[in-house]
Design brief:
Length: 194
Amino acid sequence: MHTNVSDGKLCPLELVDQAIDIGLKGIAITDHHSLGGYQQAESYRNQIQTANPDQEIFNLWTGIEITSNLKGTDVHILGYAFDATHAALEPYIQSVSPEGQDANAQKVIASIHQAGGLAILAHPFRYRRPARELVLLAAEMGIDGIEAYYAYGNSYPWKPSPNQTEEALELAFKNGLYTTCGTDTHGLNLLKRI
């Protein structure tokens, strides 16, 4: 999910309110090159939990989306459940795309791992290179998983695209990777991608 800290339209507090209203059990805000949306949402979520200790509120994991170069192809690598204060992430939380060696996918993956997180290849069917090639290259570099459940057709309400999901699950299985689900929401409604 993206907030207006990067290229989304919802402010982090609105995103938290919607997640609670929908009844989500866990979320990660994956703003581009920033932890600001996560930090605002975490503070607000904690305030709500303190004021309503009996209310079941979703888990909020750290998240980020980093533009990376994977053997000549620009891709997005998601980081999840990492230590937000770890120095290895410093080049990636400056609100701008990394450049040079910092943009190398292998370095991005290694940095997420150093911070204790999982590195995931985002929406593998949205790039100029075939997903099969990219997933294999990413797996060779130590990626942990791929975003298998994704709404390539921008359906409403959100639901994963069946053909790409089936192929992504096959690729993940063949390469020993985890699979994740991403709404990649950028709009005003968490149930739609844009």
